[in-house]
Design goal:
The structure holds 2 protein chains of 2 kinds.
Chain A: H1 3-25, H2 27-30, H3 32-53, E1 55-57, E2 60-61, H4 62-93, H5 96-101, H6 106-132, H7 143-167, H8 171-187, H9 202-206, H10 210-223, H11 230-254
Antiparallel strand pairs in A: 1-2
Chain B: E1 13-21, E2 27-36, E3 41-45, H1 52-59, E4 67-72, E5 75-76, H2 81-85, E6 88-91, H3 103-113, H4 118-131, H5 147-158, E7 165-169, H6 177-192, E8 196-200, H7 204-210, E9 213-218, E10 221-227, H8 228-233, E11 237-244, E12 258-263, E13 266-272, H9 277-286, E14 291-296, H10 300-313, H11 320-324
Parallel strand pairs in B: 3-8, 3-9, 6-7, 7-8
Antiparallel strand pairs in B: 1-2, 1-4, 4-5, 9-10, 11-13, 11-14, 12-13
Classes of the chains: A mainly alpha, B alpha/beta.
Chain lengths: ~260, ~325
């Protein structure tokens, strides 16, 4: 390993470690609220409403059907919020300058933050899944698909959150995207229903929603059912990772919002 | 201590025709060129908005130059940014660490950003936090520290990569005199050990006491760049404040000296630097005025600084004498 690569690996570990320590330090803000929110979803939509719906697809109860979507929803939300608030916080406090002055590559900064965001997303996902098991029983149909789907979903929204934080000038700016973009896309992304239930043209329009592919890939991993081809879901997710990753690196390279 | 280097030795910092124009059209640097020798303790002075922070921003790669280049120990900031940054330690003007982190973690993480393994970083963090008398606060949140402690923490953090060039951008702003002295004790120590130091400050007596060479920047242009001694030698007139033992009845007329009465027991004497002080005391004594204490009205560098900056604004010459004219 070259000296430069070795130094970047130390820097990468430092950023990732710092991000994870931050998540643990403020665990009442980072880990507990999404678990409480999802518990309410399980109680209201899963138990109270869901018990009247009965089975929805392939013999799965409604609560079983919505669990993968709700887990994925928690993962992408927390992944996004972690990176956008942490990186914007660093910009706001100017502590980002510590990293900008240091002799490390832009990809080191990006991957370090993404690791932190994915770690929080996955930690919340595991906690939500554990809570879900209190309400219903679940198996894992395709472990590899389940794991890669959540990892890719978390990565995509971590990258999107990073880009948001780069452009953000005030804290309000990092709350806009989750409220006006992620939440609607999530609710319309097949978390609570199968898009096969929708009439034309809503079904076709739903296929343009990237969250649909993440939710369905994870649902395939857990339940073994999906509204879309899992291969297409992977292509869509990998394409988003590549495009968002390239944009984030380009912005870092140009110093947008970071260097004068 | 590394004193003046031979002319062929690589400079710690060499700035060539550096220009910076911000998108709003403000021309912060108008072709600045500068050389700082290895081992120097160099003062970069200028009024607010003169371009000091922009220059430091470019040296630390936080600001992109419009044109020109800077080399740190011969390494181009433009072309070999990472290599150049390894040589620099930066203490910025504004606090720029995460106030919710602990000083020990801030230092260890800083080292990590420079690729320094955690074990080595932990040893260095203890060393520098101890030297800057912060070890007892090492594991408390940084926001609990006083302003002076936060300033010292930024110095400790800047030392984590053991830089060859330490840039201090107004490190003592708002810090009490005791802490300032302890900070200067530390910085003069590392300079004596070979680290080149560039200091910007508004406390000109600090610059006068600490620095061997000086550049004064105003409106994005270097208006003076010389040895501190040479600059101070340009000061042609000094003003002294004299406290007297009794009430001053009348002022004597002394050749070459302008005397002004400030109050009943205080005089101001303005005289050329070439004039000896003995003639002043003799003249006053002959008129029955006994001097009990004496001090400079203003710091010598401050007086020159004001003349140079004001002289530049009035389109006058760039040396102390011309500017003072």
């Amino acid at each position: 390993m070259s000296a430069n690569l070795a130094a970047n690996m130390v820097a990468l570990r430092t950023i990732a470690r710092r991000e994870i320590v931050r998540i643990i330090r403020i665990w009442t803000q980072t880990l507990i609220p999404p678990v409480i929110t999802m518990t309410l979803y399980f109680v209201i939509f899963g138990k109270l409403v869901g018990s009247r719906i009965g089975t929805i697809e392939h013999g799965f109860s409604y609560i079983q059907y919505i669990v993968p979507g709700l887990v994925m929803m928690s993962i992408i939300n927390n992944s996004y919020m972690n990176i956008s608030s942490s990186f914007f916080g660093a910009k706001f406090q100017r502590s980002v300058e510590e990293m900008l002055v240091a002799p490390m590559s832009n990809w080191t900064i990006l991957i370090g933050y993404v690791i932190g965001a994915v770690a929080r997303g996955l930690a919340v996902g595991v906690l939500v899944l554990l809570v879900a098991l209190l309400f219903t029983h679940l198996g894992v149909a395709h472990l590899l698909v389940a794991v890669t789907a959540v990892a890719l979903g978390a990565t995509i929204f971590a990258l999107a959150g990073f880009i948001n934080a780069i452009y953000a000038k005030k804290f309000d700016d990092i709350a806009l995207v989750p409220t006006f973009v992620i939440a609607p896309l999530t609710y319309l992304g097949g978390v609570f229903y199968s898009v096969n239930m929708l009439p034309a043209p809503w079904r076709q329009l739903s296929l343009a929603n990237p969250i649909l592919y993440m939710v369905n890939a994870f649902r395939f991993g857990i339940l073994g059912i999906s509204d879309v081809s899992v291969w297409i879901a992977y292509v869509v997710m990998l394409a988003f990772v590549a495009v968002l990753g390239a944009i984030a690196l380009l912005l870092l390279h140009k110093g947008v919002g970071l260097r004068s | 201590m590394l004193d003046s280097q031979s002319s062929d030795a690589v400079a710690a910092l060499e700035v060539e025709n550096l220009r910076k124009t911000y998108p709003n059209g403000v021309e912060a640097l108008k072709g600045v060129s500068l050389k700082v020798a290895q081992g120097d303790f160099f003062a970069l002075l200028g009024p607010n908005g003169a371009g000091k922070s922009t220059l430091i921003g470019i040296l630390s790669s936080l600001v992109n130059a419009t044109s020109g280049d800077a080399r740190i120990f011969g390494v181009s900031v433009n072309r070999q940014r990472n290599e150049a940054m390894k040589l620099i330690g930066l203490v910025p003007q504004e606090l720029n660490f995460n106030q919710f982190e602990k000083p020990f973690d801030i230092c260890v993480n800083e080292a990590g950003f420079y690729g320094i393994p955690r074990k080595v970083a932990a040893v260095r963090a203890e060393k520098y936090l101890n030297e800057l008398r912060l070890w007892d606060k090492a594991f408390h949140q940084a926001r609990e520290m006083s302003g002076g402690m936060k300033r010292r923490l930024m110095i400790a953090r800047a030392m984590m990569n053991e830089p060859r060039l330490l840039i201090l951008d107004e490190p003592t702003a708002g810090v009490d005199i005791e802490i300032r002295r302890s900070m200067w004790h530390f910085v003069t120590g590392i300079n004596a050990a070979g680290t080149t130091v560039i200091l910007t400050t508004h406390y000109l007596e600090e610059a006068e006491q600490l620095c061997r060479n000086i550049a004064i920047i105003d409106h994005g242009t270097i208006v003076e760049n010389t040895a501190m001694k040479s600059l101070l030698a340009k000061l042609d007139v000094e003003t002294f404040v004299l406290d007297t033992a009794g009430d001053i009845a009348g002022l004597p007329v002394l050749e070459g000296i302008v005397l002004r009465k400030v109050d009943g027991r205080t005089l101001e004497a303005e005289m050329p630097r070439t004039h000896d002080l003995n003639s002043l005391f003799a003249g006053l004594s002959a008129h029955g005025i006994t001097v009990t204490s004496m001090r400079n009205k203003t710091n010598r560098l401050e007086e020159l600084f004001v003349r140079l900056v004001e002289g530049g604004r009035n389109g006058q010459g760039q040396n102390g004498r011309g500017a003072a004219a």
